[in-house]
Specification:
heterotrimer, A mainly alpha (357), B alpha+beta (159), C alpha+beta (374), A: 357 residues, mainly alpha, 68% helix, globular, B: 159 residues, alpha+beta, Alpha-Beta Plaits, 2 domains, three-stranded antiparallel β-sheet, two-stranded antiparallel ribbon
Chain lengths: 357, 159, 374
Amino acid sequence: MILTNFNYFANLIRYFSEGLGWGTGGEILGYIIVAAIYLAFFALAGLFLVYLERRVAAFFQLRLGPNRVGPWGLFQTIADALKLLTKELIGTDRKDKLLYHSAYYIVIIAALLSLSVIPFGHGFAAFDVNIGVFFISAVSSVGVLSILFGGWGSNNKYALIGGMRSGLQMISYELSAGLALLTIVLMAGTLQMSEIVLQQQTGWFIWRGHIPALIAFFIFIVAGTAESNRVPFDLPEGEAELGAGYHTEYSGMGFAWFFLAEFINMFIISAMGVTLFLGGWLSPWGITENLGAQWFWDLFWFFLKVFLMIFLMMWFRWTFPRVRIDQLLTLEWKYLLPIGLINIVLMAILVYFNLVF
Amino acid sequence: MSYIGDILGGIKTLFTGMKVTGGYFFPNIISRKYVITRQYPDEPAIVFERFKGEVVMWHNENNEHRCTGCQACEIACPNGSIEIIWDRVLNPETGKKVKVIDKHIYHLGMCTMCNLCIQACPTNAIMWSTNFHNSTYDRSKLTKVLNKPGSKLMAGVEE
Amino acid sequence: MEQIILNTAELKSQEYFLNMGPQHPATHGVLRLILTMDGEIVKNIEPDLGYIHRSIEKQCEYEGYKQIIHLTDRMDYLSAHINNEAVALAIEKGLEIEVPERVKVIRTLMGELTRIASHLLWWGVMGMDVGALTTFMYAFRDREMINDIMEETCGARLTMSYSTPGGVMFDLHPNFQKRVKAFIPHLRKVIPQYHELLTGNVIFQKRMNGVGKLSYEDAISLGATGPVARGSGVTSDVRKFAPYSALDRVNFKEIIYNEGDNMARYNVRMDEMLESLNIIEQLIDNIPDDGIQAKTKALIKLPKGEYLQRVETARGDLGVYIISDGKKNPYRVKFRSPGFSNLNTLIEIGKGHLIADLVAIISTLDFVVPDIDR
């Protein structure tokens, strides 16, 4: 069954502006409602991911995680958020006020913007532009700025070292991540995220574009882990070395924003990987296509795949040691980038001669 | 082509590492097989019988103890965690003056659990107890009097 | 009008001071290092000690000989039992008494178990410093088994005060042999897993190979001892050239690696754990049965003179030097701590590395800062 594209959120906005006849005011009301839905999702996803990280970490380390606050400890993050809300906001003495305080807002803005393009299900992408992949790559660069602001504005040498390391790391790995995504775009022929998912109805891209897509997937996992500052690439917040890196001098809500944003970045990287390589919200071999309530099954498959990729990234975190800064740059510029470029040429040749499945 | 060989060799070691942690993770999810922690307040702590928790004085059912006030433990203690307040009274039976203890003060806050006082005691009056729930909010509660009020020396205990 | 800089030789960058202060997640204790840095490369290291100085040596002058044992527990708390043994052996040398054979075997067994526990904790913390955060919990799982063995016999898990001049405080618990015999195969099973998890990992190897080279001549001239010296090729195991307690009747190899970098020191400690298991296996079966305390007076007074005893703790060569003038308190007690000399080597080998390397080097040198400032 070939599915066509439609958009629930656009329908919602159109309902308010044209269906009820409220014109521009209705449109703005629709935008606000969509934004509120996304903020709610952002908060819930952040809370759940923090809880998941703590439980998964605990099981790797031969212990149980939080299991007292609420059933199975599900309300633990809410308790943590309440604690962080009531903490005193201390900063350093002569910090740069504008940079220091705007750092944690910018990182949230970047995360929310990226979240709006991702197709959660059939018709569930709020801002479904026809340059979706390009938009996400561009917006995640804005997140780099926030780390540099935090590092410099804290007036602390440790934070500065962390911020500088992170700036280097993120701009290097964006190249590799972008090249890996471009490989798939070559096969799909479009940059629009929902179209890419719909094109995978005959088979997921990781299977259809055999060798180059597999290599691109590995490169994307490595580059994505580096983009979201997770071990083995978490030098900016190298815990054993620098205290806490760029967010050393933040306390209370500022730290909570950085912390949440790291998990949402991880979610976004996994969601992009799932959308472009693993078939988005499509079920494998179409097994649930003929049951009713398709919106539920779409969301279910999407979140299942995303959580599997997130679990993989967590597995990396709790197994591998950290790389050093010069080894990180060697890995990127001498290994990942050349392989990525050769991969694109290989994929282009395969697509031209129709050798993909 | 050692370039490709390096990459593939490196990836193989990464997978071996992941296999070790995965081997602990999945049985833990299913049946908590390798979990080594205990849910402490709900399950009691496992303490062995020789554990040096704090020093207590033995009393029998009639509230009698065996401490003769010889001050051997006070001399043996390295940092003065034991103070004995004693007095000489006339023993009516033998007519001699003997030492009787008024209070055996034990500073739990200063004790380093070195076991020298219990080794030095000639009558086995003091012994270890495995109680470790000694934290308080008030430091004066850590100065304990070991002999219970109203107790006296058991008959037949000689120095 | 700004000047356009045409070549980088004109760019002046400034060296700055970074304070790896007393409170830091990676220096194993309260050690303050003042680093002079250029970018991210360390140019000079200056350690600032004394944050945990508790004047143990001075306190020993006011206490009797039986009472200085409990102070030595708190010096290098990870090899507490070996410290106790050192002081007890020094006092016994002075009194010239012969301890029963059972005491010698018990002391050696407990010493080797303590060495394994110390190396396990070192491995766990090494993984944590380098970034692999699960190694800590795995090491502590094994260390708990040793702690249980210690608790059953000695009554305490970390600061045991178990040896006294002339013997040991308590006799072995009946479960001791059973527990140790259950522990040995468990450790032999998990150490290959640890090699798979951390040692073989390509990221770890790249961070350890070739980093922090200590040459053979430097190791001798700076006074390095223990696994630090053995990783550079220097044969310096006190258990071999001056054996004490029951160590003269067991067969074990001395582990020497020649490269002198981080990986060599790491390998020395991992192999030492297996050698300690061999020693325990040789001694656990026939423990002689002739009493646990030799006869000493209640108040010990050493005759006038100077007495030295060297032992091999998990960190290296600990020396206990007692000067006595016939009274009931020693005149002077001096502890020659292995950590203090190994800290000298840090100043040499840390130069020219990045901060991340510095953390790894500090971790392989295995300091316990209370050992450095007694």
